């Protein structure tokens, strides 16, 4: 039976989504976006030389069949490694409508999202009056500040002083399905902020807003404000059992690494280990050494997306891929005979594309430890099926 390690390279898409024309970055459709394909091309053309140089060096991902997966997904013709892949490789297509992180992960875990997420409009007042009233009541204030789309650091700079003076919470949103509340840890109070978020979360989840996020900060108008590490996400829970539940129900342990805990509201997980990507890689290495037989380790590496994809930083994304490739090669050497390591992604975020939003794409599925050969074109849900079958866990439905 062995163990299963499932690592999501957040936003590492490979193009070719059949419905890409229905998705936009600004005015431009996502048709043709190809995160990894375009990074490989940019590196080969010498256009991604900041902090690195030349063609993208990812021998481990290549040996597992990445270039073949890209060609299968999108038809993009890249120089092909001459050797046959040593892993199983394929391209997965999403059916959930959102090109967001929870949609991608839930479907990879066997649950296509059965609804449309609610996104708040980019109007002067993003939130409906009833919601504003409900939040102010829960906060015990006369009103709220913000009520708009904003980057989190910019809005505390703009409204931090007014917030400290009036005591009103700063509420804002973004292109994601989120309701975020920024408040000062001392003058508003951290516990009060967390209680407020917890209290209003059920009504936002009922509206199909994916997450309420507490964004505490400290500082002064004179010295400037800074967000603290006490961020808390109150995410909507998956409405049905997912891969981690199936594994747990069959008696296996499940470990969540990084954002996986929030994405699934810890549904089906025994333990959460957090940190930056480098730390997560160490957690993953420790679990390769220690995780019990029959267990699932589910990891999300968010920096590809959060630090490089949204900032359209091709060199940075390439550096992150080269780092990831080296680290994963080391982990594969330590797998036990019966183990499976699956590398995949949740959506695209092509750093060569206009805009700053995710791109609708197919994703690679690369599997180490269980032989070689193609998986062909599969669905996101098949990833859950492959992992469950490997662990001998029944797949419902
Ligand atoms: O700009 P900040 O506050 O970091 O917000 C970002 O973080 C949120 C959740 O990850 C995203 O929806 C985006 O809005
Ligand atoms: Mn994501
Ligand atoms: Mn993102």
Architecture overview:
The chain is 37% helix and 20% strand. The protein is α/β, with parallel strands linked by helices and 397 residues long. Helix 1 (35-44) crosses helix 12 (314-334). The chain is globular and about 65 Å long. The structure holds 1-O-phosphono-alpha-D-ribofuranose and manganese (II) ion (2 copies). One manganese (II) ion (MN) binds at residues 305, 310, 358. Belongs to the phosphopentomutase family. It holds the Pfam family Metalloenzyme. Its cofactor is Mn(2+). It is an enzyme of class 5 (isomerase).
Helical residues, percent = 25-40%
* Mean pLDDT over the full residue set: 97
> What bound compounds does this protein have?
1-O-phosphono-alpha-D-ribofuranose, manganese (II) ion
Biggest sheet: strands, sense, closure? 8 strands, mixed
Distance between the termini: 22 Å
**β content, as a range?**
15-25%
Structural class based on helices, strands and sheet pairing: alpha/beta
**What shape does the CA trace take?**
globular
Order of helices and strands: EEEHHHEHHEHEEHEEEHEHEHEHHEEEH
- Number of DSSP helical runs: 13
Unreliable runs, pLDDT <50, ≥5 residues?
none
Give, in spatial order, the strands making up the sheet with the most strands. Answer: 12-11-13-1-14-15-4-16
Instruction: From the alpha carbons, calculate the radius of gyration and give it in angstroms.
Output: 21 Å
Give a brief description.
Its cofactor is Mn(2+). With 397 residues, this protein is α/β, with parallel strands linked by helices.
Features:
397 residues, alpha/beta, binds manganese (II) ion, six-stranded mixed sheet, binds 1-O-phosphono-alpha-D-ribofuranose, 13 helices, 37% helix, eight-stranded mixed sheet
């Amino acid at each position: 039976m062995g163990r299963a390690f499932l690592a999501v390279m957040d936003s590492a898409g490979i193009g070719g989504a059949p419905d890409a024309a229905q998705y936009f970055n600004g005015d431009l459709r996502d048709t043709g976006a190809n995160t990894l394909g375009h990074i490989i091309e940019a590196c080969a053309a010498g256009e991604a030389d900041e902090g690195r140089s030349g063609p993208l060096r990812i021998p481990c991902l290549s040996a597992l069949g990445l270039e073949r997966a890209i060609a299968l997904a999108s038809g993009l013709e890249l120089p092909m490694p001459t050797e046959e892949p040593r892993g199983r490789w394929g391209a997965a297509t999403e059916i959930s409508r959102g090109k967001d992180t929870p949609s991608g992960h839930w479907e990879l875990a066997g649950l296509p999202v059965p609804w449309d997420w609610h996104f708040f409009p980019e109007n002067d007042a993003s939130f409906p009056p009833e919601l504003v009233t409900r939040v102010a009541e829960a906060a015990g204030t006369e009103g709220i500040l913000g009520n708009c789309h904003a980057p989190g650091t910019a809005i505390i700079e703009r409204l931090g002083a007014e917030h400290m003076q009036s005591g009103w919470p700063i509420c804002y949103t973004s292109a994601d399905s989120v309701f975020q509340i920024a408040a000062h840890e001392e003058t508003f109070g951290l516990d009060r902020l967390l209680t407020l978020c917890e209290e209003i979360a059920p009504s936002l989840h009922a509206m199909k807003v994916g997450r309420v996020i507490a964004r505490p900060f400290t500082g002064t108008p004179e010295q400037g404000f800074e967000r603290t590490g006490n961020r808390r996400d109150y995410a909507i829970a998956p409405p049905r059992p997912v891969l981690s539940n199936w594994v747990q129900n069959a008696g296996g342990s499940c470990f969540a690494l990084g954002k996986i805990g929030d994405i699934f509201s810890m549904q089906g997980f025994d333990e959460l280990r957090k940190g930056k990507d480098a730390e997560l890689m160490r957690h993953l290495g420790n679990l390769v050494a220690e995780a019990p037989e029959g267990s699932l380790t589910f990891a999300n590496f968010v920096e590809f997306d959060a630090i490089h994809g949204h900032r359209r930083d091709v060199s940075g994304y390439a550096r992150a891929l080269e780092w990831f490739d080296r680290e994963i090669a080391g982990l594969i050497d330590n797998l036990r005979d019966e183990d499976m390591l699956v590398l995949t992604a949740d959506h695209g975020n092509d750093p060569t594309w206009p805009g700053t939003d995710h791109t609708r794409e197919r994703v690679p599925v690369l599997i180490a430890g269980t032989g070689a050969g193609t998986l062909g074109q599969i669905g996101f849900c098949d990833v859950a099926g492959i992992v469950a079958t490997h662990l001998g866990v029944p797949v419902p439905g």
